[in-house]
Amino acid sequence: MSEPASISLGIATRYATALFELAKEEGALKALEADVAALADALAISPELRATIGSPVISREDQGNVIAAIGAKLGVSTVMANTLALMSEKRRLFVLPQFVAHLADLIAVEKGEVTAEVTAARALSAAQSKKLAEMLKARVGKTVKLKTTVDESLIGGLVVKLGSTMIDTSVKAKLAALQNAMKEVG
Question: Contact, 141 vs 176, CB < 8 A?
Fold first, then answer.
């Protein structure tokens, strides 16, 4: 990991941990979870927001006004709004994506959940997603949330990443293994 990325992650982790502990003390983890989801969605769909929080050219005051307006529009809790205002005041909004991701991780750990990244050749139906989540839950003993993406280059099958474990049942991987085996033969 590069040094600037490591520094950014450290900053985001400190803010996220402090906010998580405050929300936990106040019994406001449900509200915090809703705030995290809303901010994650806003960051995902708005390149303008990502550009604004990452720009050193935009003044501290302007960044503060933007994040306050977004927080009000999203209806974030008071503790989240105050944290965002503090981050803006300290010129730390550039770590907002890492901050949101770390908060989501802390909330998931508190709830006993893990997230599995699933890449499939085609979109999974609700029944397939449910069955896969149940199979993974049986394997890890925790509730599993699926984060699915579609990659048609897999041809068929799935690639599942759960923590440090990766299960690749894609046709693409099987063809690559067959190709390597044929190269070894001669």
Answer: no
Structural domains in the chain?
3-109 (1.10.520.20), 113-185 (no CATH)
pLDDT tens by residue, 108-141 = 999 999 999 999 999 999 999 999 999 999 999 8
Identity at 153, one-letter amino acid code: S
Closest CA to 70 of 84, 58, 51: 84
Tokens of 33: 């979870």
Distance CA 105, CA 16 (A): 10
Instruction: Look at residue 168 and give its three-state secondary structure.
Output: strand
* Alpha carbons 118 and 105: distance in angstroms, whole number: 17
pLDDT tens profile 126-184: 999 999 999 999 999 899 999 999 999 999 999 999 988 999 999 999 999 999 999 98
Neighbours of 125 (CB within 10 A): 9
Long-range contacts of 6-13 (CB under 8 A, 24+ apart): 8/94, 8/95, 8/98, 9/95, 9/98, 9/102, 11/92, 11/95, 11/98, 12/95, 12/96, 12/98, 12/99, 12/101, 12/102, 13/98, 13/102
Neighbours of 176 (CB within 10 A): 12
State how beta strands 113-120 and 158-162 pair: antiparallel
Residue 12: partners with Cβ closer than 8 Å, 6 or more residues away: 95, 96, 98, 99, 101, 102
